[in-house]
Write a structure and sequence with these properties.
By secondary structure, the chain is an all-alpha fold. Helix content is 78%, strand content 0%. The chain is built from six helices and no strands. The protein has helices at 2-21, 28-41, 43-50, 56-65, 70-90, 95-114. Helix 2 (28-41) runs antiparallel to helix 3 (43-50). It is globular.
Length: 120
């Protein structure tokens, strides 16, 4: 079971890294999930992820306070808005599907915006 958990953690790290380059795919939720899986499968890789210069601080903020930085909130909600605009322009022709996607994105944005800011 440990090997499956470790493999899943690496899969989520890979998806998170892809999310850095694709605006439609978020990075942080996948890294949070990877860190949680590493905590159960490999303390060494968990430490590596927590100490990572780019991903470490957001993960620490999330673990300690469930907090998301102002910069991350702005980036996240902005990219959700851009993604939704793309859905309307070139997405599926069904209006009901566009509306469902909109409800999902608004729900995700509400979740992000209601998280506290990290303490300084």
């Amino acid at each position: 079971m440990r090997i499956l958990t470790l493999a899943a953690a690496w899969l989520f790290v890979a998806v998170g890294i892809v999310g850095v380059f694709l605006p439609l795919l978020p990075t942080t939720p996948f890294m949070i999930l990877a860190a949680a899986l590493f905590a159960r499968s490999s303390p060494r890789f968990e430490r590596w992820l927590i100490e990572h210069p780019r991903y470490g601080q957001p993960l620490i903020d999330w673990r300690r306070e469930g907090a998301i930085s102002k910069r991350a909130k702005i980036a996240s909600v902005s990219l959700m808005a851009v993604s939704y605009a793309i859905v309307w322009l070139v997405g599926p022709p069904q209006i009901w599907l566009k509306l469902v996607i909109g409800v999902i994105l608004v729900s995700c944005a509400a979740f992000v915006l209601t998280r506290p800011l990290p303490r300084a």
